Amino acid sequence: MAYLVWTPELENQHPQMDQTHREFVELMGQVEAALGGEQAQLLQRFDALHEHTVAHFEQEDRWMADTGFAPDNCHSSQHRQVLDLLKEVRRLVVDENQQDLIGRLLPELATWFEQHAQAADSALAFHMSQVGYDAATRRSERPVEAEEAISGCGSSSC
Length: 158
Prior knowledge:
Elements: H1 15-34, H2 39-66, H3 74-96, H4 101-130, E1 133-134, E2 139-140
Antiparallel strand pairs: 1-2
Helix pairs in contact: 1-2, 1-4, 2-3, 2-4, 3-4
């Protein structure tokens, strides 16, 4: 059974976010399918997941910055931690031949992603709808004032 599959519970009613999340799930599956195969193919798929995740998190961080989140909010901190982990796992696989690390990472990453999507990302999608945020123009109908900046992840379960 796959570590991560797309389910309706992962949908946040934000088409752009949901599409990005579907792509993440698909790329996770591609990495999982490469486990036990050639290292070059595994690393190629892992790199594709990493590149996607960088762009994915940059997109969400931009939305948060545009809609009144403080620069040091915990949602963005989670993004940085995951990106640091992906980078370190790749380094250990390549430099120290720790081939099993990607296989050990995937179930943990899947668990984290499900929780993150259902809590922090769901809250972000809701917040964007509440302030009338348009990702194309990067403008909100009801902007958050600077003194009201959101420092949490946007969810009560941060």
